[in-house]
Amino acid sequence: MKAWGKSFFTSATILAAMHTGLAQNNSSPYSILGIGDIEESYFNRTSGMANTGIAYRNKNYLTHNNPASVSEIQEQFFSVEAAARGKFVTYYTNNSNSTVNQTRDFSVSRFSLGIKVKKWWGSSIGLMPFSTANYSFSGKKSIQGTNAFTYAKYEGKGGVNQLYWDNGFSLGKHFSVGITTAYLMGSLTQTETFSGAEVTDELTTTKNIFLRNLYLNYGVQYYTKLNKKWDIALGAVYAAKTNLAAEYTTDIASNETVVHNEVTKNDYFRLPGALGLGIALTKSRQLTVAADYRYQNWSALGYRGAGYALQNSQRGSIGFEYSKSQQVWPLTIEKIFYQGGLFYSDSYLQVYGRQLKDMGMSAGIGFNSKRSTMSYLVAFEYGIRGTREKNLIEERYGKITLTLSYKDFWYTKGIKYY
Questions:
Q1: Phi and psi for 95 in degrees, rounded to 5?
Q2: 194 inside domain
């Protein structure tokens, strides 16, 4: 799709300008490429486990990592969950320890509602980000055909959200299947401004891209006992290649007066096929150790530009969880749980021959009320993304995620259990 590639600024100019300055509203300068930063977090019970959860099942929480897990929702209860995330990033460049800039951001990231429709059918709806673009930086850009330079400022914001519907179905005692039907929708705004003594008028070019389409994700889980103490679960997820309908608009303004407007319709942006595999081992319903591997075939789409290309992405993670319970007659209630995890990924962006890597660790702690109607999870993640080579940017970031979960009876046939 040539129109999409042309909508981005020349990568050589962009990335060379990054070290000149970064604004306080930056999320990542790399989000100028593709459809922004693809969201790797699920903002749920697996946040403290490095978001490891393709094979994870929990009857008290809504886990979007694999739609098959929704079949585990506890009967006669409904669940409501909301999550918010705070993020702070420090940027480094030029193979030095000097700080380019620091930014902070806070956002409400997820809302979901789930119920057990039938004994064999669980269902959940929710809203969360799919990708995010947020950057602002400036530098000098050469004027074509001359030896002169002009001041250039680049800004971008927006992203793609997903409104999703998870359905999980139990097929017997050891097997579940699921499907996520998501509607992806959003817009990206890119602004390029030229000013300075070399140009007679301030010139601003604003490009808006509106994206939308259905996106399907399929999942399966198999779970059984290994012996009296240990349980095992295996999981897999798959999403086929999907085209997002795209509409482009371009405004060119001179000293804030629009002098040109153009609308391009009936274009598209392709999302690649994706595959994920997971395993989880649980001992005595207290200790869980899990591992995930995810892969996306971006290189098959053929997107590339001056200095950048989209490459196959992969992510591996491991996580653990230790849970303590207490007896609140007639129920056994989870009182507190502790989590930890590690992750490593090759992102879908290759810039100046360097595929961006992301690695880090996470930790979390959660509490439940005595009646098990309200629970709280606080998770922290620290990671390093990017590189300082080739005048690129290295990001060192921290994320704090707060997840609130409320559960109560919704259908009891007149029977109360407490």
A1: 55, 35
A2: yes
Q: What are phi and psi of 102, to 5 degrees?
A: -135, 140
Distances, alpha carbon 138 to alpha carbons 18, 158, 201, 279, 405, in Å: 7, 19, 18, 45, 42
pLDDT of 364: 98
Q: Is residue 417 part of a domain?
A: no
Boundaries of domain holding 327: 2-409
Q: How far apart are CA 19 and CA 3, in angstroms?
A: 28
Q: Tell me the pTM.
A: 0.86
Q: Compute the distance between CA of residue 206 and CA of residue 187 in angstroms, rounded to an integer.
A: 13
Least confident of 171-175, 193-197, 310-314, 338-342: 193-197
For the cut 90, the answer to whether the pLDDT of residue 271 exceeds it is yes
418 part of a folded domain: no
We report the CATH number of the domain holding residue 391 as 2.40.160.60
**Report for 30-39, 144-153, 249-258, 337-346: range of highest mean pLDDT:** 337-346
Residues 357/319, Cβ–Cβ less than 8 Å: no
Peptide bond into 330 cis (omega under 30): yes
How many folded domains does the chain comprise?
1
Q: Is residue 363 part of a domain?
A: yes
- Res. 197 pLDDT band, cuts 50 70 90: low
